[in-house]
Write a structure and sequence with these properties.
Number of helices: 19
Strand order of the largest sheet: 1-2-3-5-4
Number of strands: 5
Structural class: alpha+beta
Helix content: over 70%
Largest sheet: 5 strands, mixed
Strand content: 5-15%
Shape: elongated
Mean pLDDT: 79
Order of helices and strands: HHHHHHHHHHHHHHHHEHEEHHEE
Low-confidence stretches: 513-518
């Protein structure tokens, strides 16, 4: 009765230590009193040290936690060893206290850890996005920073020497054009590396590693402590009992890691448990409990329940050697307790592994989607600005001697484009930044006016923001393709809202070359529009290349 009373009190204190972190110091002190005061009154026969050991893991500071846990286990062996009817009693008591204490701690701690792991599920995606965007920002800064500064300095030098030293101005503009093309190559390399989806992200959350490790440790310690206790507790067949328990424990742990071979392993466990049972009898019956836990872990449905009931019934026929006859109902209760504890720890491990796989898949998917977005944005949004900058430099080279006034005007425009390209690169990592479709259309018109004889531009005064953010990069990439890849002399761009869709049509008369060399740019545009639930088509008709995009709004 004293042992039962102390156990109830200490179990309550252990739950308080788990639920109320602020009270853990006082709870630990009360647990020490509740553990050792009955020993002074009743002697070492009252052993509830396992509850104190579990409380120590909750209430002791991290650096001393496991040392205090080990001290409680060793103290249990010293105090209670002489009361155990086995040899060596001290080792038996210390091993039992450590194993049960660790299992109790794991059973109470794991739900909390799983909740915390689940709660950080969405945060993990945000951290992954932030890290990826920071990395790309650093790459773009390294690629554009000094080079764009050099381009701006060269253009400023050309503007200063335009009248007095035209040859020197032309040389500066040529070098600016070469530097711009180096920037374009570097930016393309960054966009290409963003398409490398083989890089696997790492889950940096410590709990993701702690939960399965703690669970597996509790299972392993519990299984091998059980084997050791059975070996020491029983007077006969010790070697056979140790071998059988070790084999069953190893197979059970292997089932956790190798689900594909779980059924063959269960068959091996059944053979190891049931075949020797008629010869070893009660010495071997403990492994029926382990087999029942393996059945629950491996099988599903009515057959699993039938098999466990049969194993419990078989266990109820045996009484431990050297003990008084015990009511079979008590054997059933003890078997059920041990089976559910072991099965519960195993399911905790499986759930933690499943949750970690889910987290890894979320990070991988999030990272891949972001990398593809960044690759498209780098290709599409920076492409136009840098391409126009290179074209401007080539145009200035031709105008320096023929039309210095216009050359100066074009240099001013090139300086503005260089500054815009630098700021645009850093804005790429902000996925939420709204891009004005109207501004992109105006910029496209200005860029085309310098390279194409006839440009027709028409769009509504008010364009929807969400659909406009989808089509703005499409306008940029389409205009870039016209400037780079076609021999167009006439371009017409029209963007209108019709009912519940925003329509974008871009025509140019450079159909032959544009249709052959659309390349990655057309794929990017199609992916953007289709991803927003719209439609995207290209066609060649009457010597014209037509691009049509429709986005819901």
């Amino acid at each position: 009765m004293a042992a039962v009373g102390c156990g109830v009190v200490q179990a309550g204190l252990l739950v308080i230590a788990q639920c109320r972190p602020a009270a853990r110091g006082r709870v630990l002190a009360a647990q020490v009193v509740a553990t050792y005061l009955p020993i002074l009154v009743f002697g070492g026969a009252v052993n509830t040290d396992c509850l104190l050991a579990a409380t120590v893991l909750f209430a002791t500071v991290t650096r001393w936690r496991w040392a205090a846990f080990g001290l409680v286990a060793v103290g249990s062996g010293v105090v209670h060893g002489e009361w155990q009817q086995v040899w060596p009693g001290s080792l038996y008591a210390a091993l039992g206290t450590a194993a049960i204490g660790l299992v109790l701690y794991s059973l109470l701690r794991l739900p909390e850890l799983l909740d915390r792991l689940s709660a950080t599920h969405s945060e993990l995606a945000q951290v992954t996005l932030a890290q990826e965007r920071l990395q790309v920002t650093d790459q773009l800064r390294a690629a554009l920073g000094e080079e764009v500064g050099t381009v701006r300095e060269l253009l400023a030098d050309a503007r200063r020497d335009l009248t007095a030293r035209p040859e020197r101005a032309r040389d500066a503009v040529d070098r600016a054009a070469s530097a711009t093309r180096r920037i374009i190559r570097a930016v393309r390399e960054i966009a290409f590396t963003q398409r490398d989806l083989e890089v696997q992200p790492v889950d940096g959350e410590p709990i993701a590693r702690l939960v399965p490790r703690l669970t597996f440790l509790a299972i392993a310690v519990g299984l091998f402590a059980w084997t050791a206790n059975q070996t020491m507790e029983l007077s006969g067949h010790r070697l056979s009992t140790a071998i059988g328990g070790t084999l069953m424990s190893c197979l059970f742990l292997a089932q956790l890691y190798s689900a594909r071979f779980a059924v063959p392993m269960l068959a091996a466990q059944a053979a190891i448990t049931l075949i020797p049972l008629p010869w070893f009898g009660a010495y071997w019956s403990a492994w029926l409990i382990l087999l029942a836990a393996a059945v629950l872990l491996t099988l599903r449905g009515p057959w699993a329940v039938v098999a466990v009931i049969a194993l419990f019934a078989l266990r109820g026929r045996y009484t431990e050697p050297g003990t008084a006859p015990i009511d079979p109902g008590l054997w059933l209760l003890l078997a059920l307790q041990a089976t559910l504890t072991l099965f519960g720890l195993a399911r905790f491990w499986q759930l933690s592994e499943q949750l970690n796989r889910s987290r890894a898949e979320l990070v991988r998917t999030t990272l891949h989607v972001e990398r593809l977005r960044l690759a498209r944005d780098i290709h599409d949004l920076l492409g136009l600005a840098l391409s126009v900058l290179a074209l401007k430099a080539d145009l200035v080279t031709d105008l320096i001697t023929r039309d210095p006034v216009r050359a100066e005007r074009e240099i001013e425009e090139a300086l503005r484009i260089a500054a815009d390209a630098q700021s645009e690169a850093y804005a790429l990592v902000d996925h939420e930044a709204a891009r004005s479709l109207g501004r992109e259309l105006d910029s496209a018109g200005k860029a085309l006016n310098d390279a194409v004889a006839t440009v027709e531009l028409g769009y509504d005064d008010e364009l929807p923001d969400e659909a406009g953010a989808v089509l703005a990069p499409v306008v940029r990439e389409a205009v870039t393709n016209v400037l780079r890849h076609s021999a167009a002399t006439r371009v017409r761009i029209e963007c209108r809202r019709r009912k519940d869709h925003l329509h974008l049509d871009i025509r140019n008369d450079g159909a032959q070359r544009a249709s052959r060399t659309g390349g990655q740019g057309l794929d990017n545009m199609r992916a953007r529009v289709l991803g927003a639930g719209g439609s995207f088509t290209t066609a060649v008709s009457g010597g014209e290349f037509l691009l049509s995009a429709r986005v819901p709004c």
